[in-house]
């Protein structure tokens, strides 16, 4: 029996922004929420305890990577993914579809599933909807995703229509492959590329099948932000108001604010952690590229208005010194700051929606940001 539910607490009077709570078997998630990405059973550069200190209530794991190494059955023998990585809060696993389809010539799509070669050792594997669900259940995730094809951009309408239809058939097989007694939730993924009518068809088909929540896939794959927002506006109102709405792989702080304004409840993206390792730091006024010479003797914190551990204890000059010398501590501190910023951005949005002032929060977000050249 599912232990999953969603409670809508507040709606913004001037936008589609929503404040809610997701109930899972391992705790409650406040929405809108940003979910740090822990592809291989770790959010790179972060201890689980530090993630909790920064307010992370749910993180992601990746089916494709954990299936290949160390293997989902090994993880299960060691107590499941939560025990394996020492994380007792909810975990969402993606289906592995995006990683498989990004392999290009190393994979072949068929009705059955996807035959692919491992990026690790070249070994051959077949990932089907049934196997994707089995791997995610074996890992012990609290929210699992249907197996779908992540449609590349740009794509012809004929290709998008065919791919979206295939993902719909796979979604039905995922639902049929579910075990009914493990307490996890299963989300369907709306596809349709940049075609509003195909998004509508996909959303309607998935609701006919019936899922615990719904995601928008195939966004932030190279399209302009305006096209992304158009697809959010086309698809999100078609989804049930009493279930969570998740936009996968998105994105920049601006994407998050605009997604919230359009009714998104859940986001994930590697951007804060990957950028951190590359010395790009997010602040209330824009990006700081810490390797720039201007910071060599700068005694200020990354963001003078930030109250995170990093900004309270370290200067830009020191962080630049660490980064220039490839010190591991640079990645750790940068990641902590960036996740603090992203998680705080969503906490602020939740408070603003509850207070009926999300429009002001959104305006203030843009007012404070400077041109890239000033960051």
From TrEMBL:
List the Gene3D superfamilies hit by this protein, alphabetically: Queuine tRNA-ribosyltransferase-like (3.20.20.105)
Catalysed reactions listed for this entry: 7-aminomethyl-7-carbaguanine + guanosine(34) in tRNA = 7-aminomethyl-7-carbaguanosine(34) in tRNA + guanine
The protein's annotated pathway: tRNA modification; tRNA-queuosine biosynthesis
Residues annotated as binding substrate are: 94-98, 148, 191, 218
Q: Where is the tRNA-guanine(15) transglycosylase-like domain?
A: 16-370
User: What is the E.C. number?
Assistant: 2.4.2.29
A molecular function (GO) held by this record is: metal ion binding
Essential cofactor(s): Zn(2+)
Q: Per UniProt, which keywords does this protein have?
A: Glycosyltransferase, Metal-binding, Queuosine biosynthesis, Transferase, tRNA processing, Zinc
Active site annotated at which positions?
A: 94 (proton acceptor), 268 (nucleophile)
SUPFAM superfamilies documented for this protein: tRNA-guanine transglycosylase
- Give positions of region: RNA binding: 249-255, 273-277
Mind listing the GO biological process terms from this record?
Answer: tRNA queuosine(34) biosynthetic process
Q: Tell me which GO cellular component terms the UniProt record holds.
A: cytosol
Primary role? Catalyzes the base-exchange of a guanine (G) residue with the queuine precursor 7-aminomethyl-7-deazaguanine (PreQ1) at position 34 (anticodon wobble position) in tRNAs with GU(N) anticodons (tRNA-Asp, -Asn, -His and -Tyr). Catalysis occurs through a double-displacement mechanism. The nucleophile active site attacks the C1' of nucleotide 34 to detach the guanine base from the RNA, forming a covalent enzyme-RNA intermediate. The proton acceptor active site deprotonates the incoming PreQ1, allowing a nucleophilic attack on the C1' of the ribose to form the product.
Name the UniProt record assigns to this protein: Queuine tRNA-ribosyltransferase
- Give the encoding gene's name: tgt
